[in-house]
Amino acid sequence: MDSLVMMGKVLDETQRVVDNIEPSQLDDPTPCSEWTVRDVLNHITGGADMFAIAARDGSVPDDKLGQLIAGDNLGDDYKKAFEAAATRATDAFAPDVVLEKVIVLPFGEMPAGVALNIAIFDVTTHAWDLAKATGQSTALDPEVLGTALELAQGMLSDEYRAMGLFGEPVDVPADAPPQDRLAAFAGRTP
Questions:
Q1: What domain range is 71 assigned to?
Q2: What CATH number corresponds to the domain at position 72?
């Protein structure tokens, strides 16, 4: 799997979902029990910028990190804000050599390629959250869903679940659609 190509597919799928969110839905609840649609959008937009800055500079200054995590990353146009942040992230990761670069993120120090794999899982899961919350189809690109699930199974530890970042896995049939298997593994009820 080429992580850069896959991240592009993830961002395309997520942008499609974001583009179909109506302003009236921004305050709606999501499968992330503590977050509204706006909160999830803000998280993935700030996250894209956080990853872009870390890939470019090696780390994110504390004052900027605070803004990206707790500030408003959407402004007046949430669709354009996500698109611009996704473009910055794509551009920052574009040179293959950056994947070996060690970067520092709030959850640890790691090669940028590992961080990219975390982002593939996280953003795909949140695209599912946004689709589910806004009445869109959660049947994202099957290749994206399969890759995100495979990455999650390799990295989502009990420690992450204990921190409240993801719930305990939900039981679904082995032949459930890929979007349901991903959601269930991430602790969501499909």
A1: 3-145
A2: 1.20.120.450
* Tokens read off for 73: 């990353």
Overall number of domains in the chain: 1
d(CA 130, CA 32): 9
| Paired tokens of 161 | 């679940």
Task: Determine the length of the chain.
Answer: 190
Phi, psi (deg, nearest 5) at residue 103: -125, 160
- The pLDDT tens digits of the residues spanning 54-94 come to 999 999 999 999 999 999 999 999 999 999 999 999 999 88
Specify whether the CB–CB gap between 2 and 143 falls below 8 A.
no
Cα–Cα distance for residue pair 5/147, rounded to 1 Å: 12
Tokens, residue 186: 């991430």
29 DSSP 8-state letter? B
**C-beta of residue 182 within 8 angstroms of C-beta of residue 128:** yes
30 in a structural domain: yes
Instruction: Confirm if 179 and 145 have CB atoms less than 8 A apart.
Output: yes
Task: List pLDDT tens digits, range 136-145.
Answer: 999 999 999 9
What residues does 29 pair with on adjacent strands?
36
Residue 53 included in any domain: yes
